[in-house]
Every structure is written in structure tokens, then in C-alpha cells.
Amino acid sequence: MKIGFYGQIKRPFGGAAEVTAPNEGVTVAALRRLLAERYEDEAILERSVRAVVNDEIVPETHVVFPVDTVEFMSPVSGG
After folding, report:
1. Is there a smaller number of Cβ atoms within 10 Å at the N or the C end of the chain?
2. Angstrom distance (rounded) from CA 72 to CA 2
3. Over the stretch 69-78, which tens digit does the pLDDT of each residue have?
4. 4: which residues sit within 8 A by CB, 6+ positions away?
């Protein structure tokens, strides 16, 4: 599955990431841990970083499947 990153969280990952998810799915929380380990950066574990699956903000317990579109967004502030 391809994972997109937006805002400040994009920097540690250098763009999109590719992850193989099991057919039975994986929770957003588990996916975050996997990304943190693989990229050796814990920024993805910050509570302020929101998970979006198929264009909907989801909780940590949401199960993600290989066919889903997954994105992580950092909070944005304007001025």
C-alpha cells in the first residue's frame, strides 16, 4: 500500500512510503509503529499527526487494508 504524508510529517519520510499490509488488515496504530521503526523517526507517533484513510480522518483503532488509500497529515497553522 502506498502511504502519503502532508505538512511537516512529510520531511522525515521524503515523500510517499510503500508498505505491504496483510490481507486481514492492520490498525492505524500498528502502521504508525511500523513506519517509525522502518524510517527510524518517531514523528509519525505524535498524537497531533492525523491519519486519513480513503479521505476520512480515522481513529488509531481503525483497520487499514491493502486496497485502502492512507495519508498522514501534520497540523497546519497559518498566519
Report:
1. C
2. 11
3. 999 999 875 5
4. 16, 69, 70, 71, 72
**pLDDT tens digit string along 28-50?**
999 999 999 999 999 999 989 99
Q: Which of 29, 20, 24 is nearest to 2 (CA)?
A: 20
| Alpha-carbon distances of 65 from 15, 58, 69, rounded to whole Å | 21, 13, 9
Q: Which of the 8 DSSP states describes residue 10?
A: H
Cα gap 44→31, rounded to integer Å? 10
pLDDT on residue 13: 86
Mean pLDDT of 1-13: 90
